[in-house]
Amino acid sequence: MTMNISRRTFLRAAAGIGLSAAAHPWPLGAETRSKVREFRLRAAPGHAPLLGAGHPQTAVWAYSGQVPGPEIRVRQGDRVRIQVENRLPEETTVHWHGIRVPNAMDGVPYLTQKPIARGATFRYEFDVPDAGSYWYHPHFRSYEQAGRGLYGLLIVEERDPVPFDRDIAWLLGDWRLDREAQIVDDFDNRMDAGMAGRIGNLVTINGRSAAPLRVRAGERVRLRLYNSANARIFGLVFRGHRPLVIAIDGQPVEPHAPANGRIILGPAMRVDLMLDMTGAPGERFAVRDTFYPMRAYSVGEIVYADEPPRRQRPPGPPPRLPPNPIPEPAVEKAERHTIAFGGGMMGGADGGGIWTVNGKSASGHAHEPFLRLKRGKSYVLAMHNNTAWHHPIHLHGYTFRVMARNGRPTRFREWQDTVFMDPDEKVEIAFVADNPGDWMIHCHILEHMQTGLMGVIRVS
Asked: What is the pTM of this model?
């Protein structure tokens, strides 16, 4: 479902919100501005060995011939230049999820750019102001394009290295395959859209099923967890280990054990863990997904090498990641707005949609803003998930503090870009509106977004 829009209308809107690839709301020094990292991505049909050797390869859509796409790893303060070539049978865009980019680089079709036509190339260019774990994926028909394999890692390293023995990323994917290991082509399933979203029957780690985490006893590992699934929510339990959360959505947080020993990852969310490998050489430990209690399973395994430990005891307290330069909202003076998410199967949304934001069901990406904010002011958004389903709510262009849940202040006041909301939960977030433009806010269960649960916030 996309919106038709004339070239004149798009250009008028683009001029109105000051689209400029060169503009950036966070000035960087000349030294960092001079370092440009260049990459190329080619979106095209391909094949991937999701099930491993001895099984048919799966027809996918991939970046540069691989699922997930090439890892883009840069240093905080770098300027990134990425040429995206579209060899898909339809238009596309790329959204740089969690990066505070200028509006023109946000990759939302018709809202921030014209879609990249078949056979065409588009250059994205922006500075990366924040270190952390981010990712990239389409925002044009993303429920199908991402569901066919179009996504990849974007890691921004801290300016000063953080002491870990290894830095490892696990990108969790979810696939709905038939008996021939091919993707089931039912992306417009209204039952999925009106309930939990498109949940598959195969979970992969970095594009492979049951991929083990091979470690050495005594290591200290930074494990970056990503959820790239359309809709599956993960609740990960690391058997025999005591992981500490050190970052959420790429943003540093006070190191702490996850509640009930389980890491919750809604679609699009990321969590960085510190894992001390306290097992013995040759041991194996399951990593279980228990979010859906009646369907718990082992998503992966920690496998210890048969070699002497790297060290006999952990190397001191957990390291604290340096904070990113995000402006602190003046919460006591902030202007407040209320956002209600409604609908769902039997929810009575209007306009043929299923889900609503403040009573309206959106279609396409370009529509009138439901909130207009003044640049430089602090805001609190009081959001209510007035539905029977979970929703990971993502705000483009910003990182916000999660201030309260159901009226209770949060323990860590986490910086996030995607906040997970339980059914009937109320969450308050706060931020400084310092990045001008028209910005999407939506549920990252992609079938929910596609059928109405999205809107636009204008900052000017």
From this structure: 0.91
